[in-house]
Design brief:
single chain, about 270 residues, Receptor-associated Protein
């Protein structure tokens, strides 16, 4: 009965099986939904039990638990379902960091007269992220798969659009009999130009972010705390260490929020450190 429920949930999530493959997760879609369900259940139970223990002194622990549990469970379940998307984004960023260097390395290999298969082998040995895809391509070829089918399989499994373009160019060049190295050079140059444009746009977005950071995370906390201390002294309100720690925690959260926003909005490219 439970597996039927998990199958229905997995069927409602579009492209879940492909996402799991692109994220490098060995689970099937049903297995992933099942693991996610129980992870959310255990996490929610732990949080609700802790809240119940804390709120038993005011005799609202059980009532709060009954109200919070279903809502918190759904939030946790939906949060854990996003895990493949997070891994895909991370893999995509790592691929985009290597794509230009690996592409140029492949071009140099091909221009030196090295066969395509051997060039793929050399790329797999020198680049840890993109190399895994080329290693899988070589393994598929060793097992009897045609090079076109092996490349098409890699196209389906990679989450990076730039890497797909490189693989598509290799497939098209081999199909039409064109020079692979020349075609790859054109694609790599285009990717470099696009990465430069993206970084320039990112630099322009940093200016308003820096302004908001100065206002919200530097100026307002400094002036606000000063005004708060003055107001508290006039009203003869006792300022405890707990209150100060809460204020410091809120300021730290704002700082972390800005750091996360800036870091997540930075485009992945060969120019990233």
């Amino acid at each position: 009965m439970g597996d039927v429920l998990f199958k229905r949930i997995a069927g409602k999530i579009a492209g879940l099986s492909m996402k799991l493959q692109q994220a490098g997760m060995p689970d099937t879609d049903v297995e992933f939904v099942k693991k996610t369900f129980f992870s959310a259940f255990y996490m929610t139970t732990g949080i609700v039990v802790a809240l119940t223990v804390l709120l038993t002194k005011v005799n609202v622990g059980v009532a709060v638990a009954l109200l919070i549990f279903p809502v918190l469970f759904m939030m946790m379940f939906m949060y854990f379902l996003k895990f493949p998307d997070v891994r895909i984004m991370r893999i995509q960023r790592e691929i985009d960091k290597e794509i230009v260097y690996a592409g140029r390395f492949l071009v140099i290999e091909l221009e030196s007269g090295i066969p395509v298969y051997d060039a793929f082998k050399h790329v797999s040995a020198n680049y840890p992220v993109i190399g895994k895809y080329f290693q899988n391509i070589c393994e598929d070829i060793d097992l009897g798969t045609t090079i076109d089918d092996a490349l098409n399989k890699a196209v389906e499994l990679t989450p990076s659009q730039n890497f797909r373009r490189v693989l598509w160019q290799i497939i098209n060049s081999m199909t039409t009999g064109a020079d692979v190295a020349t075609s790859l050079n054109t694609v790599i140059d285009q990717i470099v130009r696009e990465q430069r444009i993206t970084l320039n746009e990112y630099g322009r977005r940093l200016n308003p972010l820096a302004m908001f950071y100065m206002i919200i995370a530097v100026i307002l906390p400094s002036i606000g705390i000063t005004m708060f201390v003055i107001l508290v002294s006039f009203l003869s309100i006792k300022l405890t260490l707990t209150t100060l720690l809460m204020i410091a925690g809120m300021m730290g959260f704002v700082q972390f929020l800005f750091y996360t926003v800036v870091k997540s909005s930075r485009p992945a490219s060969q120019f990233e450190d």
